[in-house]
Amino acid sequence: MPIYRAPVEDTLFLLNDVLGLERHTNLPGFADATPDMVEAILGEAARFAEEVLQPLNRVGDKVGCVRGADGTVTTPPGFRDAYETYAAAGWVGLSADPAFGGQGLPYTLAAAVSEFVSSANMAWGMYPGLTQGAIAALAAHGSDDLKALYLPKMVAGTWTGTMNLTEPHCGTDLGLLRTKAVPAEDGSFRITGTKIFISAGEHDMAENIVHLVLARIEGAPEGVKGISLFVVPKFLPDAAGAPGARNAVSCGALEEKMGIHGNATCVMNYDGATGWLIGEAHKGLRAMFTMMNEARLGVGVQGLAQGEVAYQNAAAYAKDRVQGRALTGPKAPDKAADPIIVHPDVRRTLLAIRAINEAGRALILHTALMSDVAHRAGDDKDRQAADDFLGLMTPVIKGFLTDKGFQGAVEAQQMFGGHGYVAEWGMEQFVRDARIAMIYEGANGIQGLDLVGRKLPANNGRAIQAFFREMAGFVAERKADPVLGPLVASLEKGVGDLQKATMWFMANALKNPDNAGAGSTDYLALVGHVVLGWMWVRMAETAERLVAAGDPRRDMLERKKITARFFMERLMPETGACLARISAGSEAIMALPAEAF
Amino acid sequence: MPIYRAPVEDTLFLLNDVLGLERHTNLPGFADATPDMVEAILGEAARFAEEVLQPLNRVGDKVGCVRGADGTVTTPPGFRDAYETYAAAGWVGLSADPAFGGQGLPYTLAAAVSEFVSSANMAWGMYPGLTQGAIAALAAHGSDDLKALYLPKMVAGTWTGTMNLTEPHCGTDLGLLRTKAVPAEDGSFRITGTKIFISAGEHDMAENIVHLVLARIEGAPEGVKGISLFVVPKFLPDAAGAPGARNAVSCGALEEKMGIHGNATCVMNYDGATGWLIGEAHKGLRAMFTMMNEARLGVGVQGLAQGEVAYQNAAAYAKDRVQGRALTGPKAPDKAADPIIVHPDVRRTLLAIRAINEAGRALILHTALMSDVAHRAGDDKDRQAADDFLGLMTPVIKGFLTDKGFQGAVEAQQMFGGHGYVAEWGMEQFVRDARIAMIYEGANGIQGLDLVGRKLPANNGRAIQAFFREMAGFVAERKADPVLGPLVASLEKGVGDLQKATMWFMANALKNPDNAGAGSTDYLALVGHVVLGWMWVRMAETAERLVAAGDPRRDMLERKKITARFFMERLMPETGACLARISAGSEAIMALPAEAF
Predict the structure, then answer these.
(1) What phi, psi does B272 have (nearest 5°)?
(2) Taking the complete model, does pTM exceed 0.95, yes or no?
(3) What is the DSSP code (8-state) at residue A246?
(4) Which residue of A104, A208, A504, B4 is surrounded by the most CB atoms within 10 Å?
(5) Residue B75 and residue A347: Cα distance in Å, rounded?
(6) What is the pLDDT of residues A414-471, one digit of tens each?
(7) What local confidence, expressed as pLDDT, does residue A291 receive?
(8) B538 near A CB under 8 A
(9) Residues 142-181, chain B: which have Cβ within 8 Å of A?
(10) Which Pfam families would you find in this protein's record (chains A, B) (predicted)?
């Protein structure tokens, strides 16, 4: 039976000591997030994740969701009760607008909580997770009437949300979508079409389900410029705002899939369903991207979360399993063999996962804080700078952290030998669940293209240039530090590789865009290594400072310093290989005719 | 529904043009392997794999093996008929000794055939695959009586074989094993104990199952020096050599696992079962290693095989799926979108899988040829040199090609977006099946230790030194070649990194063995990149020669040259990162106390 302990101490170290949450009390909602309050909230979330959600993870995988002949979907045993408890405790609206019943706390805090939930039970966490994205899109683009009708229910968790983009013939290329919207006389629309891969599309956990649906209004332009966003509830709200008549939307089938069996992945049929326009006609993609960007950060959290829970189990196993002897002689001579944690290759594997997880958590929380600044700060310049960083990091967090989360789950599974392949140990579920995070909300290849094709050139490279300036200052200030110096030197090398790669694109991608496409995935990985390296220097610096001040968390702080060194020695060298691959360009890649593949 | 076409043309190119099988007609059995014969055999194997085995792959996964209350195991529908056809056609004994009914053809050819089988249906292929390993161990170490009794049945495929090593508390560390063997008066033994993870341990495909079982004879020394190998048949052969009384061995349970559902992974209970000693008492590990080494090459083939079939499906999908437009403007303006093969990132992904697959196949066939030389050559020096190479490459083929095969399957799945996560497309099965190859027959971390701890220092480094001499000569002869020169320069850089890593171990691992353990996995990857790079230069050189001679396979040959360039530009840079990681040593890795993990 897998274990899970939410990393509360590590999260508090990041929020309080590294990121300094309390320095942002000028932002709305942050004054309420006192250190005591944050600790209490994280502790409560940890308890719920460990005691309620994690024990449901295996049954969720084994039993999965079941669709009845009438199109109803039953979630795994225990899922519904857990959701009711969660919603009743106000978790869904933790960072939502108090105007709609939310607690208005920092999104940063909600991101931390969502990691715990996702580690404990990724499939379950998707139900409230998608609701949060739908809340964000409605709040940003919905009319006051729509907001008043839907948001209080969704913020309370009484109603859940979904996003409906994909159709059988179109995923990445939404310009091809065919779902139709016909205006009705009362200002609503009749939506007709088939959507696939709709997570949480139908279930028994909430009294209503609010679908956000992309469709094309009759007569709209072709391509992405003719797409609109609609709200289509499962039950039409009656005059009192309570679930009324059944809408013409139903779950036609559940997908049989590799993992996240506890989440209902639905084919959704819209048969003239009643929907209402969100925002302007033909500008649905922009509105959906509000939801998508939120969701992409959430998927990055899922990558981290699976890497974390897989790590915890692998570390526990490595300390428990006795097999063979240390290369330097027996370490447990009283036993028949040594625990496998004595082996450098086992430690190397564990440290590699941990070095990604802890810096990934730092990057997510730092970026979530920038999201709070971007949405809540009073100063335009602060908001813009934070939004630039958020835009630049969104594909990196989604793409890099889900690649690494999956890799971490695979490596953790490997620690178990044959037992890792057997269902009862739970490790193979982490691998199967983690796999989807690389695919949905824009496959990771698309994240690379978003980074290189959109985020880099946007506003004449303003975001990446600001990042380089920040790195230059950061490095210059710490280079001569006797303790941090070696770490900073590695970071500087990584930043240099990233600058070279960026300049290579500037010199070669304009004349041939294939040179950007051929290097986009490696560029994303290169940025990923550099920003995690930056996080490690910040964590090591904080640890050094706290140790000097006599902080009682000495073991944890020393571990941070050693893991920082490990990251620089063992993971940072990848930036050189990324640069070499990027600089190779697209010639060999484009040389073959399509038939040769 | 997934597709599969056996790579007959590529295999013939390797056997005939690159490796020159016909230059080895001095070896027993090779004279029969004329080009026509080889082509006919590969064609027949391809047909069987494509038409019989591949259609059973999904049902094997979906239905799996079922254990009855009486301990019998039913294989998936169609598995048994396919096996009977396969055995009747003589495939099991393709390279086995004619003295026991085998065809005596090169093992090289059998390795090629096993790739086709494993691509088409990995779980099915394990039944005959394990039999071949058991044949090898019995042939090398069994008494004449045992060989006469068992080998003809096993070579004919009428009886299948298994290997029984693992117990609940011992996998890697066989010194801990507890299964007991008590001598009986008639010279046989009574075997008692529990073995786990026994592939093909019980099934309905053959009239008898021959278990090779590691056990400790009563009073034997502790540790690995007290382990003996026994043959324990499911049915005791009667006087006529036919299956007689049921032996006291039974399947206690089937493991519920991540993949290879079509293969029965059994808990085997030995309750005083009758067995006979193979080879000398207490020297069972050496005998088992004959089987294990054969099996490790076979597992490397599985890695390649899953990477190959996954590639084929991803390439077909990329040519078929239309979505978005090329970065350089529409390529299929008459369609709503371009096929995704126009995108550099899609091509990069496909080429990376292909560059590993084709060089992996070359390495496997080259190494299999060295295995034939090691076992069949008349000259002692030839045999020793071939055996040295075989020993050096066995962990690399097992470890590197299964890591890369899994990675290839994951990347191929990624091409499908959400469809890759859904069972009906078959891609997620390739990933789940490929995963086990990194684990069994010695987890890949163990392969790294075998390479660095055993194979490198053996005979004062004779094997690696011979390899470096071969590389030096190979590079020197081709460095100035105008066409091959750039490829050779990349290879030379890789060889240089490998030499530096080897010297680093010599300088640092003696004084602290943890420095070897901390770099073993990276060293294995480093060797893997170098030998695949070597194979690419050989393939490109052959392609160049054949194109110049007007060979009609021009498209294939040009593709080889481009893929060679891709490998050097995009995959070879990893050797520098491996060297950097190895040179970092073990300090940071060993610094933390076990509790800190």
Answers:
(1) 70, 35
(2) yes
(3) E
(4) B4
(5) 40
(6) 999 999 999 999 999 999 999 999 999 999 999 999 999 999 999 999 999 999 999 9
(7) 80
(8) no
(9) 166, 170-173, 175-176
(10) Acyl-CoA_dh_1, Acyl-CoA_dh_C, Acyl-CoA_dh_M, Acyl-CoA_dh_N
pLDDT digits (tens, 9 = 90+) for A542-568: 999 999 999 999 999 999 999 999 999
Spatial separation of the C-alpha atoms in residues B308 and B49, rounded to whole Å:
14
Amino acid at A390: L
The answer to whether the CB atoms of B589 and A348 lie below 8 A apart is yes
- The encoded tokens of residue A449 equal 């293209």
Put residue B236 in one of left, alpha, beta given phi > 0 → left and psi -120 to 50 → alpha.
beta
| Chain B residue whose CA is closest to A570 | B581
How far apart are alpha carbons A39 and A311 in whole angstroms?
A: 23
Question: Is A115 labeled as catalytic in the residue annotation?
Answer: no
Q: Return the sign of the alpha-carbon dihedral for residues A416, A417, A418, A421.
A: positive
**In this predicted model, what pLDDT tens digit does every residue of B392-429 receive, in sequence order?**
999 999 999 999 999 999 999 999 999 999 999 999 99
Say whether B257 and A517 touch across the interface (CB within 8 A).
no
CB-CB under 8 Å, A581 with B570: yes
**Sequence letter at residue B533:** G
pLDDT at residue A293 tops 90:
no
CA-to-CA dists, residue A306 to A180, A365, A429, B548, angstroms:
38, 17, 10, 53
Compare B430 and A169 and report the one with higher pLDDT.
B430
Predicted confidence at residue B291, as pLDDT, reads: 80
Check CB contact of A562 with chain B, cutoff 8 Å: yes
Q: Which two tokens stand for residue A5?
A: 């302990």
Residue A515 belongs to what H/E stretch? Answer: helix A514-517
Q: By the CB < 8 Å criterion, does A332 face chain B?
A: no
H or E stretch including B464? helix B458-478
User: What is the ipTM metric for this complex?
Assistant: 0.97
Number of A to B CB contacts under 8 A, please give it: 250
Is the sign of the CA dihedral B459, B456, B569, A591 positive or negative? positive
Give the CATH H-level superfamily of domain A287-443: Butyryl-CoA Dehydrogenase, subunit A, domain 3 (1.20.140.10)
Dihedral through CA A199, CA A201, CA A205, CA A206, nearest 10? 130
CA angle, B461 then B467 then B471, to 5°: 145
Q: What residues contact B448, with CB distance under 8 A and at least 6 apart?
A: A345, B395, B399, B520, B521, B523, B524
- The partner residues of A283 in beta bridges, in order of sequence, read A227
Tokens of A171: 């995923």
